Amino acid sequence: MLTIDISCQLTDFNLTINTIINSNAITGIYGRSGAGKTSLLRAIAGFHQTTKGCILFDDKPWLQSSGNILISPENRPVSMVFQEARLFPHLSISQNLRYAQKRCKNSKIHYSNLVETMGIKPLLAKDINTLSGGEKQRIALARAILAEPKLLLLDEPLSALDTGSRKQFIGLLREIHKIYKISMLFISHQIAEIEQLTDEMMVIEHGKMTHFGKTADVIYALSDLGDIKEQTSLDLLINKSLPDFGITELLLFNDQKLYLPSHYIAEHQKTRVRCNVMSTDISISVTPPSSTSLMNVIPVVINKIVKLHNKAKLQVSYQHQRFFVTISLYSLLSLELDIQQQVYIQFKASALKTI
Ligand SMILES: Nc1ncnc2c1ncn2[C@@H]1O[C@H](COP(=O)(O)OP(=O)(O)OP(=O)(O)O)[C@@H](O)[C@H]1O
C-alpha cells in the first residue's frame, strides 16, 4: 500500500494529495497540463524538499514530518522513466544497463532474464545513438527495472512513441508488472493509454485529486461530467478469432457477443482485452435490427436522457455494463424514446477500439 498525505508548496503552486494506492495495482494519473502530475511523482520520489506530511510504502515511512523522518531520494526504492529516455550517450547500451544494476546492492533480478523478457537482446550490440525512440524507451525501462525498485514512476513514457511502439510498450509494462510485481504509477494525457494499462486511476486538477477509483469507473465519471469525449470502457473476453473475416469475437459477460477487427488483438484466446467505444459511434434501434451490416448489436434499457441543443445524450445499460450514446434530438423525438424503454444499441466492429 502506498499512503500519500502530503502538501507541497512550489513557489505559487500548491499540491495537496491525500490517498491510499494499492501497491499491487498499476495506477494511472490523468489531468490537464500544469495540474500537478509530475510534481506528485517528484514528491513521492523525494525530489521536492518542501513536501510536508506523510508518505508510507508498505508501512515503511519515506516521509513523516511529524516524526522528522525524511528518507533521501537515493534511499527510496523508486525508479523513474520519463518522456525522453535520458540514457547516458557516452556509455554503451550494456553499460547503461549494468550501471543501474551496480547501484542495486542485493540484486535479485537476473540480467539475462530481463533482457530476454524485454526483447532487447538484439539491441545490445547497437550504437546507443542509433536507437529509435521506442528502442531507447525500452532500454530506459530495462535500466529502471534493473535498479530493482518497489515503485516505478512513469512520467508520460509513451508520449514520443508512434502507435505501434505505444501498444508494444504497454504490453511490456503489463508483463513486467506480472513478473516482477513492481508497483507502477503511470502519467498520461491519453485516456486510451490509461484504459489499456491501469487497474485504477486518479485525476488531478489544480494540485488536488478530484477522482480516484477503478479505471473504467473514473472514465465513466469523466465522460458523464463532459470532461472527456463521452465513451464507454469495456473489459471483454476473447472468444475466438475469425481470421478469414479479419475479425475477433469477444464476449461481454459470457453471453453477449461483440466483434472487433483482429489486427487490434495481440493477445490469445480466453484472455481479456480492454476496448472503448465513443458515444457518437453508437446508434439506436427500437426493434431488433435484422438486416444490418453493423456487427455489434446489444439489447439495452434506457436509464437517462439529457436533451441538449440539437443532440440527446443517453445512458443505457446491458446488465451492469453502462454505455453512453449520443444521437440527434431529431432521432430521439422521432423514435419517441423514453426512460426504461428497451431498445438496441448498434455499432460497427471498427468502432470498438483498443489504442
Ligand atoms: N520546482 C518547481 N518550482 C516551482 N514551481 C514548480 C516546480 N515544479 C513544478 N512547478 C509548477 O507546478 C505546476 C504543476 O506542474 P507539473 O509539472 O506538476 O504539472 P503536470 O500536471 O505534470 O503538467 P504537464 O502535463 O504539462 O507535464 C506548474 O504550474 C509548474 O510551473
TrEMBL record:
Keywords: ATP-binding, Nucleotide-binding, Transport. It holds the Pfam family ABC_tran. The gene is modC. PANTHER family: SPERMIDINE/PUTRESCINE IMPORT ATP-BINDING PROTEIN POTA, SPERMIDINE_PUTRESCINE IMPORT ATP-BINDING PROTEIN POTA. One of its GO terms (molecular function) is ATP binding. This is Molybdenum import ATP-binding protein ModC. SMART domains: AAA. The lineage of its organism: Bacteria, Pseudomonadati, Pseudomonadota, Gammaproteobacteria, Alteromonadales. Residues 1-231 form the ABC transporter domain.
